[in-house]
Amino acid sequence: MATQEELKKIILDVLPDVDCVIGWGPGPEPLCASPYFMRNPEDVDYLLAGPASVHNPALFLPEYKGRKTGVVVKGCDSRSVVQLISENLIRREDVVIIGFPCAGVVDASKIAAKLGPYGEPGETERAIFDKDALNLSLGGKELSIPLSEILADKCSRCKHPGAVISDYFAGEAADALQVKDDFTDLAGLESLPLEERFRFWEKEMSRCIRCYACRNACPLCVCRDHCVASSREPHWLAQANGVRDNLMFQVIHATHLAGRCTGCGECQRACPVHIPVLLLKRSLGRAVEQLFGHHAGLDPESRPPLLTFQMEETNIKEREW
Amino acid sequence: MEASSKFIARTALAGWLGELSARFRVWAPRREGRAVLYRPFDPQAPEDNLPELDKKPTESAKHIIFPRSEPLINFRRKRDPEHPGQFLLDLRVPEAPGPSLIFGLPPCDARGFMVFDPVYNGSGTDGQARDIYYLRRRAAALLIVRSCSRTLSTCFCNWVGGAPDSAEGADILASEAEDGFLLEPVSSEGAAALDSGLLVPADENRLKAAQAARDEAKKTLKPAPDISGAGKALLERFEDAAFWKGEAAHCLSCGICTFLCPTCYCFNVTDETAGANGVRLRSWDACMTPLFTLEASGHNPRQDKAARLKNRIGHKFSYYPELHEARFACVGCGRCIKSCPSGVDIRRIVTDSVGLTQSPKPKAAPRNIPGGKE
Ligand code: SF4
Ligand code: SF4
Ligand code: SF4
Ligand code: SF4
Question: Number of structural domains, chain A?
């Protein structure tokens, strides 16, 4: 595809000035790509920017702070980059941002649901994406699934499929889309009585193995190595693997991300036992949007409302309580 | 052996597991959404929790014998009546758990316990450092392995001495045969468990059907490369920082690979207290996290994720086999590949280390390219 070729040209131009360019390359298995670190011109041949490029390469940028690094971004990834810059977790001058018009990425859960019992990664023998469909071989059969049916939910509510910030852009940049996020994903759960919602989380969190992939896959969970979850003093969380502590960690993650989370969905995608942890972040994210009118990851000059302080908040009428 | 092999119809399975529940705590893989997890079998509602036997469980079976977090000692602090101002501790070791039975684990999961065994049975310490908590659960567990009728592209048990129908470590080997399962006793405990009115002697046709299915499954695995030199190659690469940086570039340092792995056996010990009561817990630990080697002084001998990944691979393919009769501490279950959110492939790191492949250069031509060629 033309964009892919143009991207490669840009990366080749950028490469001599940076430590590496982070993008996507072939993964271990036909249905998954993998984050890909290009250092040599010949590496660039294997770049994959398309529906399988699910990973958020912004995740790796804080590791490279102080070294000039290139990063290829989907629209959602670019919002993580903006958020990192606005919190001074990376420096604008350290990163060379390369955007392209993203057409959405796939959601492995939706592919699995389409393929029935045998749709997990590792079960397909061959997978090729074309413009509108995923074509794969499975158990000796050839199948074709329209991409529109397996795109991630975040893509259907995405306003900025082109990067919100970039130094280079492959292809035509477009205006923001007029899409409304009506939080339909939360509606089902929120229609339940509080008791049942709690039971839902109890059941979901009983699967949690406390691997902290949700935390480590989050580009904005930057205390990774010094997380409250592993602090003994103060002792927020027991090592015991039980629903109480498992859920407690999710509540911590969600509150620490309130107003900072850009909804990239990597936390949920990473979870090996498929716990819908994004729901918690979306719920708090919506609260921050409504209270403070703040949208994370759009303006490098902005500050997340919970990281600032005002004597008198506009939408919180404390005096009237 | 074959003379005492039995057959059970799929429709009779729940009944048999119910029967076994009288003697064992029965565990079997169960589907929960997209995940397949080992859960206790509920004899009260057998039809509602039929084992999921067609899918490879997302997690390994190790937590049944080596729980994620397990109380080693319960303690209670109380005032010493003789010396006011001083405290006494009441210590209580939890009771030994009853016997358990794991039904339907894949052969690689059973072989995983073989990696645990020498470590927890005092190997290298003349039997001094034996872990009673592990050993008592292990001794009281019966493993009914089901041979794999399908393999995944992430499976590579044949690289490390396994096979989709390996009976190593099993008490009974179950194989799909037409409308049910052929059950072959492997140990005497296994043979005893086959004494049930719900089972019928296996007939010639079913024996043949099971064998044919097993042979078919084996053929679906790709041939194994020669990785016998991995132990030496990994030692030689120990100081090769650039190699490890390259391999670890996309690693997230999360605990998925270690926690899903049937052979990772490391743990941490912590005291959890609430008021005067407390418990000393042993919980899984993961060598991929920085805390694993962080010393009290603040020094960390494995500073970055490259050093940690080097340990994970080196331990499995070099240091462990060196100590334990050349057995790899990896059974090729492929879970760490399948569930890695970042596409880290342990096979690739091993073949890179022995020079059969060279990352980041992909083995095959680029694929997944929209509108592109394979
Ligand atoms: S959310 Fe937008 S930018 Fe991100 S993958 Fe989907 S369409 Fe692309
Ligand atoms: S990724 Fe999933 S299993 Fe792991 S800690 Fe997070 S919620 Fe738990
Ligand atoms: S909390 Fe989840 S959705 Fe939000 S930024 Fe982190 S990984 Fe992305
Ligand atoms: S290292 Fe990976 S493939 Fe090997 S046994 Fe562990 S999880 Fe399975």
Answer: 2
Distance A22 CA to ligand 1 centre (A): 17
pLDDT digits (tens, 9 = 90+) for B84-131: 889 999 999 999 999 999 999 999 999 999 999 999 999 888 888 999
Q: How far is CA B364 from the centre of its chain?
A: 30
Q: For chain B, how many residues are written?
A: 374
- On the question of pLDDT at B48 being above 60, the answer is yes
Q: Alpha-carbon distance B139 to A140, whole Å? A: 42
B260 is a domain residue: yes
Which residue has the CA at smallest separation from atom 4 of ligand 3?
A261
What ipTM does this complex have? 0.93
Claim to verify: residue B34 and residue B159 sit in the same structural domain:
yes
Task: Give residue A282 CA to ligand 1 midpoint distance, Å.
Answer: 16
The whole-angstrom separation of Cα B220 and Cα B208 is 19
Domain boundary among B163, B193, B219: B219
Q: Are A243 and A206 in contact (CB under 8 A)?
A: yes
Chain B residues within 8 A of A200 when measuring between CB atoms? none
pLDDT tens digits, A170-213: 998 888 898 889 999 999 999 999 999 999 999 999 999 999 99
Name the nearest CA neighbour of A306 among A283, A282, A289. A289
Claim to verify: residue B50 and residue B124 sit in the same structural domain: yes
Q: Is the CB of A265 under 6 A from ligand 3?
A: yes
State pTM to two decimals.
0.93
Answer whether residue A237 is part of any domain.
yes
Q: Residue B371: is its pLDDT beyond 70?
A: no
Mutual angle of helices B346-353 and B241-248, in 10-degree steps: 160
Length of chain A counted residue by residue = 321
* pLDDT attached to residue B361: 65
Domain count, chain B: 2
Q: Choose among B58, B281, B368: nearest Cβ to A127.
A: B368
Q: Residue A312's domain spans which residues?
A: 182-321
| Helix-then-strand count for chain A, H and E | 10, 8
- Across the interface, whether the CB atoms of A211 and B254 are under 8 A apart is answered yes
Considering only CA atoms, which of A156, A193, A196, A185 is closest in space to residue A282? Answer: A185
For residues B271-299, average pLDDT: 91
How high is the pLDDT of residue A23? 97
Give residues with Cβ within 8 angstroms of B15, minimum separation 6. B46, B198
From chain A, the residues in CB contact with B58 under 8 A are 272-273
Closest residue by Cα to residue B372 from A133, A128, A10: A128
Subunit contact A216:B368, Cβ cutoff 8 A: no
- Phi, psi at A128, each rounded to 5°: -130, 130
Q: Do A55 and B342 touch (CB under 8 A)?
A: yes
